[in-house]
Each structure stands twice: as C-alpha cells, then as structure tokens.
Design a protein that fits this description.
The complex is a heterodimer of chains A (144) and B (427). Chain A has one domain: Alpha-Beta Plaits. Helices cover 20% and strands 24% of the residues of chain A. Chain A has five helices and eight strands, in the order βααββαββαββαβ. In chain A, the strands form four sheets. In chain A, strands 1-8 form a two-stranded antiparallel sheet. Chain A has a two-stranded antiparallel sheet with strand order 2-3. A two-stranded antiparallel sheet of chain A has the order 4-5. The longest helix of chain A has 9 residues, at 16-24. Chain B folds into three domains: 2-108 and 240-313, FAD/NAD(P)-binding domain (3-Layer(bba) Sandwich); 117-237, FAD/NAD(P)-binding domain, CATH 3.50.50.60; 327-417, 2-Layer Sandwich (Enolase-like, domain 1). Chain B is 22% helix and 27% strand. A five-stranded parallel beta sheet of chain B has the order 3-2-1-7-19. In chain B, α5 (153-164) links the parallel β10 and β11. The chains are: A alpha+beta (144), B alpha/beta (427). Chain A binds chain B through residues 1, 8, 47, 49-51, 54, 56, 58, 61, 63-67, 70-71, 73-75, 91, 93-97, 99-109, 111-112, 114, 144, and chain B through 14, 40-43, 57-60, 293-294, 297-298, 301, 315-316, 320-324, 327, 329, 331, 333, 369-376, 378-379, 398, 400-403, 412, 415-421, 427. Bound molecules: flavin-adenine dinucleotide (FAD).
C-alpha cells in the first residue's frame, strides 16, 4: 500500500504540508480561501513533532491490518478496496478510540470543532498535496 | 463447515470477518435477538436525540450480510443449547445446528436492589429500543428532570444526549467520583468540574437509598438523606454478562464465561467473546472481563479465524476507552487507576494526564483534554517497553516517538511496515 513518509533529516518543521493538506481538502483549493473563507484552520491530517532541532511530521500509514479500523466503535473507519484506510465523517462519533490505538498519530482531532481527520492520500490527484508542496523534499510516497 | 453465531453486534461482526479470512465457502448463520442489522451500540445517543434511525447507525452497509455470505436471522433469540447434538433451539420454534459455535451475547443492565425501584417503569440505556423508548418519554411524555442512577460511561453518554435535547439529567453515583472504574480521583475531580460548568448536576458519594412514587413523578432518596424529585428514573449502574444461555458450561461461581487468548471456551468447537467473557488480560495474564467495543470486535475476529481452522491469539487484550462527551476529550487505557506499587507520572498544565508505571513499564494511562499521542503510549504499554529513561516527559502531551531509544523507534517503524500485525499468530 502507498503511504507518505517523512525524512526527519530534511524536514524543517515549516508546516507547509499542513497548509497544503488543508488546501487540497478545501472547497476552493486555494490556501487563502481555505483558511479565510472556509475556516479550515486546525483541520490538517498530519502532526508535526519536534524535539530540539529535530522535526518530523506524522500521518496515517495505511496499515494493511489497522487497529484503528478494528477498534472503531461506529464503522466510520474502513479499509478501501485498494488498501487505503478511509474515514466516513458522517458516521464518526469523534470518540477518539482510534487515536488511542494508533501508534503513529495517524488520526488528528480538532477538539474545538469536534472532528477527526486523517490522511486519504489525496486520491483524486496525482500526488498527495503534502508531498507535492514540501519545499525541502522531506516527504515522499513509498509503496511496498 | 457450519458456523453459528449467537448475538449480532460487535463480536458477531468480528467473527464473520475472521471466518471469511480463511473460509469463503462455509455457511454462517447469525441469530440476533434484536430486530436490526448490527448497529453501533455507543451511537444509540443519536437515536435518542432523533438525529438518526437505526439504519443510520448501522455498522456496515445494507448488503453486508449478503456479500459476506451470512444468513441473518433477526428478532430471534437462542433459548437452549444441546451440547450433545450441537444444536440450539430458538424462539422462532426452529433449531439451528453448528460445527463451530460462537457465543457473543453481550451484556444486560445491572439493576441495583434499591427499594422501590423494581416496581417503577424505569428505563435503561443499552439498546436501540431503549433509546427510542426514552425519546418517547422525553419528547411525548413530558419527562424533563431525569434521574440517572450511575455515573459511568453509559450514564454520562445518556446525560449528554438528554442535555442536548433540553432535558435536565441528574447523575447519582454512589462512589465518591464519576467513572470510578476507569479514572482516578485526580482525573475524575477535574472532569466533574468541567461537567458541572457545563450545567450537569452530579451527586457523587452517596448511594440511592430508595425511589418512591409521588404525584406525577418520583422521589430519589439518597443515603445522605437528600431527596430529589424527577420525572423519570434511568438505571445506568453498570452491566452484567448475559450468560443465561451457557449456564451448563459456566464454571461454578463464575460470573463471566472464561475463554483463552484464542477465545476458545474449552468445549469442543465452542468459542465466545465480548462483554460476556473473561479473558487473559495482556499485562497481568489473569482472566478479566474487558467490556469494551474494540475488545468484543477483536475477540470476535480472533474467534472466527480460529473457528475456521486458524491459530491466533487476540491481538490486544487490554481495555481502552475514549470519549468526547460535552466536548471534553478523555482517553484511558490499561490499568488507568493506579494500584498499589504503581508510580504515577502526572502532567498538569492545561491538559491533564496520569501515566502509571510498573517496573518502568506503562501499565495504564488517563488523558483529559488532549489525547493526541495516546496511541504511542498505548503501543509502548502493549509492547511492555521500558520507558524509565523518559522520566516525567512520558506524561507530556507533546511526548513523541522522537524521545524514544533508537531500538524502540526502529521497532515502531517495523510494526507499521508490517501493517501492525503485532501480537502472536499474526493474521
Ligand atoms: C450507551 C453505551 C455507550 C457505550 N460506549 C462505549 C464506548 O464509548 N467505548 C466502548 O469501547 N464501549 C462502549 N460501550 C460498550 C460496548 O457497546 C460493548 O462493550 C459492546 O457492545 C459489546 O459487544 P458484544 O458483541 O459483546 O455484545 P452486545 O453489543 O451487548 O450485543 C450482544 C447482542 O446479542 C444479543 N443476544 C443476547 N443473547 C442472545 C440470544 N440468546 N440469542 C440471540 N441474540 C442474543 C443481544 O440482544 C445483543 O444484540 C457502550 C455501551 C453502551 C450501552
């Protein structure tokens, strides 16, 4: 399955991946309008981790047999035919059980907005937006 | 091969999916007492609030049973097991045979022996029909003040939904704190404060002494002498395993049906999972009930896989709970209330966290407000990793894999690469 991985030797913690993640999932596909008009701030599907000078971003790794899908209380998380782990927001109770079983922070929650988000590999486009817009080549798609 | 599954909920779905990993041809029959496709039990709040009907909270798509080759018989309960003939008789007057049997009967409400309670038309909150019945009483029956006996997960989820509907729930918890079985005084005190701020009435620390009828409603009298008038009484005092069907194989004095890590009961061809069983808990190895949705699903899947000839142990045999009621995030995992000898590492700065360590290994944690990265803690716990080198940082909300030793980081990467097939008997 495809997944996006981050090389911590190249990641500079700029969070452009988050900006383009949000943009790619917005109505207008434009960063300014995604944040200003649609108010999508805080809905990125990845997490930046930092320790001292090291930074790296985490996102869903589309496990072949994901615990999050097994633990999901509502059936909102599921594995698609092509192997991607997808999330049906209408069915989600936002309980966070998935977050408690995923070791890589593959699910993000915006508490204030009461929603869970996760990487869907930007499947409608050729390349995930985070990978396409990483200024330092830290992100790449791997397929095993 | 003929598979028979009794109960049509989390455990049953797991079993169907486990069986079909190995056996695409065998016949699977599911008997479900409730007249519905498997639905998300924790989502019955949506039924209560009128946000969805039972189809709207179904776990799987409408063609699920057909596409998985399952004969689903709903509205029918198994009544007695004939262990010699491998057959159950059911309330539809028919009998059903099995080569492999899964018991996934779940739980029923625990009704405490409070004087006066048994004679009242009290409600419970375990099933879709329960939720619809409460909705009727609130929307058309004029019930406004609702006494909820029990401050556990079920009581809190009921209270949240009632408040959303404009009703006025009052929680009565006999223990000194809410959610007494999954969080400590430290977490519960903070959570209760947040709930009270949101307008929830909580009376903790005094049991219900009696419930009496008054004019149109009821009076709930507590052991401390205080009296509370309500229009409706809801019992949310916990659950009991539904073992009535299996009394013949229940060990003397046991409340839960014990199974091994492969979910076998020890009776040839008979497996069980979910709320009705006790199973070897991963950290202690002792047999314990783990009455959570994920445990029922995973146990069902392990059982199904083994019923179809596989050999696997349940992947995760630990409790974990997470909720987001009243817009407050809480997550707990493992032994989330410190016991004797546990060291508790506390983070109290904005968010609140308690991480329990036993011999330098995580035995449980509770996170309030910010549960981000809880999954890393639970992975370390499942792994039995020595985290003593992490010090107090282990409880910080921004604790990440970057703080782990190179060996653990490599192992985490491997786990993900293997698609998370952790645990013995990968499948
Ligand atoms: C309101 C509420 C909120 C909850 N929230 C959470 C949560 O946030 N997180 C969490 O992890 N868990 C939660 N739970 C608990 C979770 O729902 C249970 O642990 C889980 O449903 C157990 O699954 P099960 O398959 O063992 O049994 P159940 O879901 O109890 O289902 C058993 C089914 O078997 C049927 N049955 C029983 N006997 C027979 C028979 N003889 N013949 C035919 N059918 C039979 C029953 O009618 C029932 O439909 C919640 C529960 C409730 C009620």
């Amino acid at each position: 399955m495809k997944r996006v991985v981050c090389n911590e030797n190249y990641c500079i913690g700029c969070k452009l991946c988050s900006v383009y993640c949000i943009t790619s999932h917005s109505r207008y596909k434009d960063p300014v309008r995604a944040f200003k008009r649609q108010g999508l701030s805080g809905e990125e599907r990845n997490r930046l981790r930092e320790l001292g000078h090291v930074s790296v971003t985490q996102r869903c790794q589309h496990c072949s047999d994901p615990l999050c899908v097994q633990a999901c209380l509502t059936g909102a998380l599921y594995k698609d035919k092509d192997g991607a782990v997808l999330h049906d927001e209408d069915k989600c109770a936002v309980c966070g059980t998935c977050m408690v079983v995923c070791p890589v922070g593959g699910l993000t929650r915006n508490g204030g907005k009461g929603l869970i988000r996760k990487c869907d590999l930007c499947r409608d486009t050729d390349e995930p937006a985070c990978v396409a817009n990483c200024p330092n080549g830290a992100l790449k798609v791997v397929e095993e | 091969m003929k598979y028979l599954i009794i109960g049509n909920s989390a455990g049953a779905l797991g079993a169907v999916e486990g069986i079909r990993r190995l056996d695409k041809a065998g016949t699977i029959t599911v008997l479900g007492e409730e007249p519905y496709r498997a639905y998300s039990r924790p989502m019955i709040t949506r039924l209560l609030k009128g946000e969805a009907d039972v189809d709207g909270i179904a776990m799987r798509s409408p063609d699920y049973y057909r596409s998985m080759g399952v004969e689903l018989v709903t509205g029918v309960a198994a009544e007695s097991l004939d262990l010699d003939a491998n057959r159950v008789s059911a309330t539809d007057g028919k009998s059903y045979d099995w080569d492999r049997l899964l018991l996934a009967c779940g739980s029923k409400p625990l009704v405490p022996p409070v004087p006066g309670l048994a004679d009242l038309p009290y409600v419970t909150f375990l099933t879709a029909d329960d939720a619809l019945a409460i909705r009727e009483r609130v929307v058309n029956g004029g019930c406004r003040r609702i006494g909820v006996i029990g401050g556990g997960l079920i009581g809190l989820s009921l209270a949240e939904a009632l408040m959303d509907m404009g009703a006025e729930p009052l929680i009565f918890e006999q223990m000194p704190r809410i959610l007494p079985s999954i969080i400590s005084d430290g977490v519960a005190g903070r959570l209760a404060g947040m709930l009270v701020d949101r307008g929830l009435a909580i009376y903790a620390g005094s049991g219900v002494a009696a419930v009496e009828k008054t004019g149109a409603g009821y009076v709930i009298r507590l052991n401390d002498g205080s009296m509370h008038e309500v229009d409706l009484v809801a019992v949310a005092a916990g659950v009991r395993p539904r073992t009535e069907l299996v009394s013949a194989i229940l060990p003397e004095g046991a409340r839960y049906l014990p199974v091994d890590a492969g979910m076998a009961t020890g009776q040839e061809g008979i497996y069980a999972c979910g709320d009705m069983v006790s199973l070897p808990e991963q950290l202690s190895g002792t047999s314990k009930p783990i009455p959570t949705w994920p445990n029922a699903y995973m146990g069902g899947r392990t059982a199904g896989y083994n019923m179809a000839g596989g050999k696997a142990d349940i992947r995760v045999a630990l409790p974990f709970n997470a909720f987001h009621y009243f817009n407050i995030a809480l997550a707990t995992a493992g032994c989330s209330v410190a016991v004797n000898g546990d060291e508790t590492v506390v983070w109290d700065n904005g968010a609140y966290r308690e991480v329990m360590l036993r011999d330098g290994r995580i035995s449980g944690f509770a996170a309030l407000g910010d549960i981000d990265n809880g999954g890393l803690l639970s992975w370390l716990m499942r792994r039995g990793a020595d985290v003593s080198a992490c010090g107090a940082e282990i409880a910080a909300p921004d604790f990440s894999h970057l703080s782990l030793s190179p060996e653990l980081r490599r192992e985490l990467e491997e786990t993900v690469k293997e698609g998370q097939n952790e645990g013995s008997g990968s499948y």
